[in-house]
């Protein structure tokens, strides 16, 4: 599984006319099926009355084969959704969805023509889609004295850790998440700070 991968940082719309039909491709971020439904609802409201709203999405890392989906939305089977998904999978992007809106212009394209038409906009739009890097982070927890908290918060920030929750009891317990690749460097800094008293481990490996 990829630990780092690019994801859309915004939306991109690309429009073209193919044999009198109008094709509007909308690329955007999508981290769940719920996100996909929200994007689809928004696209339908912006482009009402279209003949078809075909879509495909990858809601996780680019190589994920489970959190994916596609729809031909009434076009011949295999002529839209699956080719769109294959194009997204070949892009190297994660957490991405594509909705292609078609306003039928009266000329039938055939299955081969539809495959080309529904993937054309995606291929042309992808190079201009703004992206950012997603780095997977894993859960962990850490207990420290109150006097150590400020320094530990600094070290977590330095190594890409996110503090999700602070519990102030006899000691401070931090619920956090951290990129796997940063664990060794963080532990070296923690060992120096705490004379080896604090060693961070990921929850899933305990």
From TrEMBL:
Q: Which PROSITE patterns match?
A: UPF0029
Q: Which part of the chain is the UPF0029 domain?
A: 144-197
Impact N-terminal domain location is 19-126
Pfam families for this protein: DUF1949 (PF09186), Impact_N (PF01205)
SUPFAM superfamilies associated with the record:
EF-G C-terminal domain-like, Ribosomal protein S5 domain 2-like
Which InterPro entries does this one have?
Answer: EFG_III/V, Impact, Impact_N, Impact_N_sf, Impact_YigZ-like, Ribosomal_Su5_D2-typ_SF, UPF0029_Impact_C, UPF0029_Impact_CS
Q: What protein family does this chain belong to? A: Belongs to the IMPACT family.
Instruction: Write down the PANTHER family for this protein, in alphabetical order.
Output: IMPACT FAMILY MEMBER YIGZ, IMPACT-RELATED
- Name this protein carries in UniProt: IMPACT family member YigZ
Q: Which organism is it from?
A: Shewanella khirikhana
Q: Upper lineage ranks?
A: Bacteria, Pseudomonadati, Pseudomonadota, Gammaproteobacteria, Alteromonadales
């Amino acid at each position: 599984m990829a630990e780092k991968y690019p994801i859309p940082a915004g939306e991109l719309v690309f429009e073209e006319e193919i044999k009198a039909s109008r094709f509007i491709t909308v690329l955007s971020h999508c981290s769940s099926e719920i996100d996909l439904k929200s994007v689809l609802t928004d696209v339908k409201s912006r482009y009402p009355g279209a003949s078809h709203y075909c879509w495909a999405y990858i809601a996780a890392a680019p190589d994920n084969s489970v959190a994916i989906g596609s729809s031909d939305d009434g076009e011949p089977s295999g002529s839209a959704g699956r080719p769109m998904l294959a194009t997204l999978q070949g892009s190297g992007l994660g957490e991405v969805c594509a909705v292609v809106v078609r306003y039928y212009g009266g000329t039938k394209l055939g299955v081969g023509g539809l495959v080309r038409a529904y993937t054309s906009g995606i291929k042309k739009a992808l190079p201009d889609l703004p992206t950012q890097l997603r780095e997977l982070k894993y859960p962990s927890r850490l207990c420290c004295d109150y006097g150590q908290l400020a320094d530990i918060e600094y070290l977590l920030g330095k190594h890409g850790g996110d503090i999700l929750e602070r519990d102030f009891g006899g000691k401070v317990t931090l619920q956090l998440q951290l990129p796997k690749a940063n664990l060794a460097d963080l532990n070296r800094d923690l060992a120096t700070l705490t004379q080896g008293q604090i060693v961070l481990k990921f929850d899933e490996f305990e």
